[in-house]
Specification:
This is BTB domain-containing protein. The protein has about 375 residues and is α+β, with helices and mostly antiparallel strands. The chain is built from seven helices and 15 strands.
Amino acid sequence: MSELFSNAQIVSDDGRNFKFRFEPPSSGTLSLFSSRSSNGSQPLSSSTAVKSSFGFSLFVFLAASTSPYDSTAVHDQYGRTVGRKSNLELGVCIFWGNAASMPSVLEGKNVTVSGTLGYAWSMSTGYNNGGQRIGTHSFMMDAVATRSGICAVTPLNNVASSIDNTVSSVSLEFAITLTPTDPPASCIDQTLVVPHSLGFIAFLNDPALCDCAFLTKDAPAPLYASRMMLARSSPFFRTMFSGDWAESANSKDPIKFTSWHAPAVALTFIHIYSGWLPGTPLPKGARKRVRSFACDPDTLEYPTWRNMFELAQMLELKALTLAINRQLVASLEAQFQDLKATKATYGVRDEDFESDDEVDGGLDKTLAAA
């Protein structure tokens, strides 16, 4: 087995990039396949274990993933075979012993391994030397964490070598790049959320200042709003007011939103005008709208929250959708706790349950009497 060793270890100033260079101990040729098996198909790994100065160790291997008989010929311009092409696997393992001793430099990081494999190989027709050729293969792979290390393997296909499957002057350079693990992406564009400090909520449901109205389910009156405010926050409304929909015309008739409960629509519009989210205090100036449409968040029941959740999804209001989802989860948890605390038996008495022994005993007595 041929050994690679590291002759360079470099870390960037920001501590996010670690560069390593591996080479064989001599400039001799390296066979891609061992001759230990009878058919010569046993792959040969070039490997090393290197303890870095960054709190982790490295194991690098380069091995053929196919047998010599599966390699393909490389031909020159005259059609003569001058070399072979094989498929290899390059692997990098970063390890530190056990899960409790992960180096701090790796904690909470995503790991990407990238680099280049360089080597030389001799062209030959079997009768004369056709000179040396240089081969390079670039690679990039995301590392997968395990309990005590990180492993990454990538294929290197069609690696050219001499007729006898040998290469020389092998050089392996690779970099380990660390990036902080991102929290789950919510994909919320905060520029679409209106700060309540702007006071736009005062203009909601003012017929003198609004240019559209919505007729909702069980509403005592239409809800008035501004097309500009709605289109600014919601792609749905943007399409509605600028597209070919009937509602985009300058009609005096209210837009029918009769599938949505009045409290759900009113609170959704309060969010659009002020950035309010469930679980936070209502903005100043919202109480009048809350009274008009009976949409006090503290008194809403689960079906209304669910209706509002579906409305927020349709309007593509992502921040509101996430906040309502948390509200729904909290509501279900509260119901579960109430149900758990009740421990009702629904009138079933303990004496109504018999043990298997009592049933079997009664059956034995019945059979004996028979």
